[in-house]
Amino acid sequence: MVSKKSLTACILAAAMLAGCGSGSSAGTAASSDSSTASTAASESVSGSVTAAGSSALLPLAQAAAESFMQKNPDCVVTVNGGGSGEGLKQVADGSIDIGDSDVFAEEKLDASAADGLVDHQVAIVAMAAVVNKDLGITNLTTDQLISIFKGETTNWKDVGGPDEDILLVTRPSSSGTRATFSKYAMNGESEADNQALETDDSGTLVQTITDNKDAIGYVALSYLVENKDLQAVSIDGVEPTLENVYSGDYKVWSYEHMYTKGDGSDAAQAFIKYMTSDEFSSKVEDMGYGVVASLTDAAKKTHAD
Question: What are phi and psi of 167, to 5 degrees?
Fold first, then answer.
């Protein structure tokens, strides 16, 4: 059992140092009486791109970076985590090229800093409360969920589970995942900070709940795609699935943003363009993320504010 002390973890994904490159091509054709031959010369992207921020977006950004670098051998893309607030702060002060965030910049930065950033919405991500599968909890009401994360309900027997103390695993205040979960799962209520383990490393959170039967936390669905040890908890009987997000039935989701300072460098622009390309889009849902174009009007209205 992990002791209930504050735990802070900052995720630093290893920099991926490989080539990168989807380029534009120009073709020249020579014709003869019976055939046409064409040759194409590709123009790959060069330089470097640094991105950091949202741990929820991290797996998708890492996958895109790896693929992008394979296509562009003269470009190095480094992707780190650290939380949405940190990513936004770093892109605003110019220390990185791209700030990854689960929330809009104006929710974390002052107006002057946010105004200097350009928003690129690359995907959507749903967050779910998660417990160990051995706990036996599959659904909670909104009121039960709020009471648990506020530290008011402290034993699982009070919400239909075993007679075990609840171990909370939450996120620091800089976390965009925390902001999204608090706003849409907890109706804006604040979490209990002094009664919980705290980490912005989604991998650490997943492992902690895997190792502790009585733990509960919340994580992006992308971290559950191949996980067999955790149970995503329904809220008021609505399962946290992409289908329910698209329909507007499940509301605990956010746009995934990649912010640049101004338009950003040519390499950063090319990387973001690749993230939203048809070529890469097939991987988005496979990794547990949602496609922005698939949101219904009903879903968009739930996040219209």
Answer: -105, 115
